[in-house]
Each structure stands twice: as structure tokens, then as C-alpha cells.
Amino acid sequence: MIMDIALLLLVVICAIVAIQMKDLLSAVIVLTVYSLLMAVIWFVMDAPDVALTEAAIGAGITTILFIAVLSRTRRGETEHNTKVRRFSPRAGLLIVVAFGAMLAVGTVDMPDFGDPHAPAHTHLAERFVEMGYQETASPNLVTAILICYRGVDTLGEVIVVLTAGMGVILLLRTTSRRKQLTNNDGYKPIMCSYYDRADKTTKVVKGEIIRKVVARLSIPFIQIFGLFVIAHGKVSPGGGFQGGVILATSIILFTMAFGMEASRKRLAQWKTDVLNVTGALVFLALGLVCILFGGKFLEYTVLPLGCDMWTNKIAITVAEFAIGITVAGIMITLFIETAKRDDK
Amino acid sequence: MMEFILGKYNYLVCILLMMIGFYAMIAKENLVKKVIGLNIFQTAIFLFYISVSYMEGATAPVVWQGQEGVLYGNPLPHVLILTAIVVGISMTALALGLIIKIYQEYGSIEENRILELNQLEEEQNLKRAGR
After folding, report:
1. Domain ends where: A76, A107, A126?
2. Residues B42 and B14 sit within 8 Å (Cβ to Cβ)
């Protein structure tokens, strides 16, 4: 319990520091520490799946996206003295304190922390824990609920992720293409030559070799680990979301070590675009096939793949990989769209 | 009072974090700071759900084959939060994309500077219309 309280205290300190820092890059780094501590807290609270997701996404991808945005905008927080009348910070503090106090009063009715007889544990959850393994053949109950009991919800989440990815593409890809079209009058596109030159000059930079060698050595292992996490989502903490993010991290590491152009040569833009959609479509198709065989949407047991246990195992694996593909594709797209240089 | 704090300290920390994030969202001028606040607000809610799912003496919800009478934690909030984290990063990315666009348009990511530029433009438009 002392450990818990110490961790929670650290998290609160990190949150305050992240908000009060003037240097935005430092603030983002503190936010990473905050996320990582949060992952530790969740692991201590018996939620390894959530901890893994937060460690990969909150501490990994979020930081990279923030840093990419800072590199394209400004690093420092600058103050302007303007005539524009705005909400003063003091009024903000007042609202926040009042709101927080009301919420704190609301917790009086909550069951105590860790109470096994809390209402949250006594209705649906009880049944999931009792019957989950028998009905879905997935020892990891989180995966069982994610893919089987709440499959439609998960499909919806995948589509939300896809939509957000499309939003980012719409926001950030359009201008560069328009500029490329105007610049590209029969010659090699300017972007390409710019990066080729950049690549040749950066070879001289010291420390470059370390980055490249480390990336080259660790990428295969990261990818194998990502695939392992996806494939073992049934029996151990992990699954499509976490594994997909880990796979995306390997590509992001490659891009950071070898440059955008080299990365685009290995994994072209159209390929990631296809990947993004493929996963969601495979998951959707899995649901529709179940209807074709006379069941309900995403009711895997009607599929003719031998006994129920095997059917479930195969269906869960297919669904996990489908989620993994979309999540990996979208995370790569998000990184590349936010991190690419503005063409001048 | 002490009993209340010891019984509910997790929920109280959630509220504290939520309010820190909320404060950054409404009182900070910098747009990146606002998104950082949004992230803290989100994680506070996640922490709340995971606190609800926690059970004294339980273990992670991965079934041990051949073991009877093991108390497992509540897996349902874990599922909800797992997907919420992924949706959260998508939302953050979208917000950051908008920030890049705003910077390209205004050359600033400070809210009052952007408001000022908007006001100046409006005044100019009014003058032009007056002539």
C-alpha cells in the first residue's frame, strides 16, 4: 500500500511538472515518464494487458508524435502580451477546484478501493470470469471479451482508429501533394532529390553509425516480439492492439535511423495505405462469414473448422492479426505524416 | 476523514490528475500544452476504471489451467480501457495534425496570438467593407 501511494504521488508530481514546464520538449519527456509510471501502476493493479498497451502507446508512440510536432512547430512556450481578452488562469483554477471538490464529494458513495463485493464485480464480470475460458478457449479473459463477447465493439474501435488515421492523412498529406504537383514539371520531384542529398551529407555526422547499427540489430527482434505478442494474445497478456503498435515501432525506429526516404523505399506509402484498410476489412469479413454460415455477426462457433475449441482459437487468431495489421499501419501512417519535413 | 482518504485514495488521485489535466486545457495558452493536458485527463479516467476493476487478493485475469478457486480481477474494465488507449492516441494524433496546420496558417501555436491575428483580420475586413 505504501508502494501504491508512493507511485501515485510520483504520477501527480509528473503531471504537475509536465504542465508547468516552459520548455515543451522537456514537458513531453516528463509526460513520457508519467505514462510509464502509469503503466507500472496498472501492472501492480493486476491489469497487465492495459499496462502493456500504455507502455507501448502512451510512453512510445505519443512521445514520438509530440516530438515530431515540436520539430515542425516551436519548442518553447512564448508569452504574448495582447489586447485580446481571455479567460484568466485564476478563473480557470477556481473552476477546476470547484469541479474537483464536487467530484471528491461524489466518491463518498463509491465502494472502497479493492472491495471484492463492489457492484462492478457482481454482474457481467462474474459470468465472464466463470464461463470465459470454457466458451472461448482463450485463457486470457481480456482477449476473450475483446474478440468474442464484445467483438462488435472492438470492430468499432478499429474503425475509429482507421477514421482518425484518415483524418490525419486528409489534414497533412494534401498540401504536400499539391506542392509536389506544382513543382513537378517533368523533372524529378524536389522532395526526392532533397532527401538524397541529405542522406549523403549525413553520413559524415558522428554518432550516426551507432544509431544505424543499433537499429539494424534490434529491428528483427522488435518485429518478432510484435508478432509473438499478437499470436499469443490468447494465452498471455497482449494481443492485436499491443502487437500492432510494437510492429509499427520497428518501422518508426528504421525511419529515425535511416531517414524518411530509405523507409519509404522499403515500405511505400500505398503499401501502408493498403495495410490500414486490410485489417479492418478482414475483421469485417470474419463477421460476415459467420452470418453466411447461419450464425450471428462475429459468432465464430458456427464456422466449420472442427470442434468449437479449435474454431474459436483460429477465429481469435485471425481477428487478432486483423487488428494488429490495421493498428500497425495506422501508427506508421500517423508517424510518417506528422514527422515528414515541410517541403520548401 | 482519515478512513475516507485511506479507503478511497485511488479515486481521489484520479480526480486530482483529472483536474490537473483540465486546468491545462482551459488555462494554458499553448496548444501543445492543451493536448498534454488532454492526455493527462484521459489517463486519469483510465486510472479510475482500472481502480474500479481492482480486487483485493485477486490476480491478473489470465486463467491458470488446472487451478481451482483462484480469484481473478475484473477483466471487463481492462477491455474497455485497452481500446480507449488506442482511440486516445488516434485522437491525440488528430489534434497534433490540427496544430501543425494551425502553425502553418498562423505561424504560432499560442492561443491568444491566434485570436489576436483573427481579430486583426476581422478589423481589416471591416475597414475594407467600410470603404
Report:
1. A76
2. no
Q: B23–A19: do the CB atoms touch at under 8 Å?
A: yes
Helix ranges (H only) for chain B are 2-27, 31-53, 75-106, 111-130
Residue A193's alpha-carbon distances to A198, A203, A210, A260, in angstroms, are 8, 16, 26, 12
The residue among A29, A31, A37, A50 with the most chain B CBs within 10 A of its CB, best to mutate, is A50
Residues A69 and A157 in one domain: no
- Going by pLDDT thresholds of 50, 70 and 90, the confidence category of residue A250 is very high
Mean pLDDT, range A12-16, rounded to an integer:
95
Of A33, A54, A76, the residue that ends a domain is A76
> B2-52+75-130 in CATH: which number?
1.10.287.3510
Q: Which of A20, A107, A163 to mutate to test the interface with B (most CBs of B within 10 A)?
A: A107
Quick one: A148 and A227 in the same domain? yes
Percent pLDDT > 90 in chain A is: 51
Task: Provide the residue range defining the domain that includes A208.
Answer: 135-181+188-344
Q: What residues in A contact B36, CB-CB < 8 Å?
A: 18-19, 27-28, 31, 66
Q: Judge whether A3 is closer than 8 Å to chain B, CB to CB.
A: no
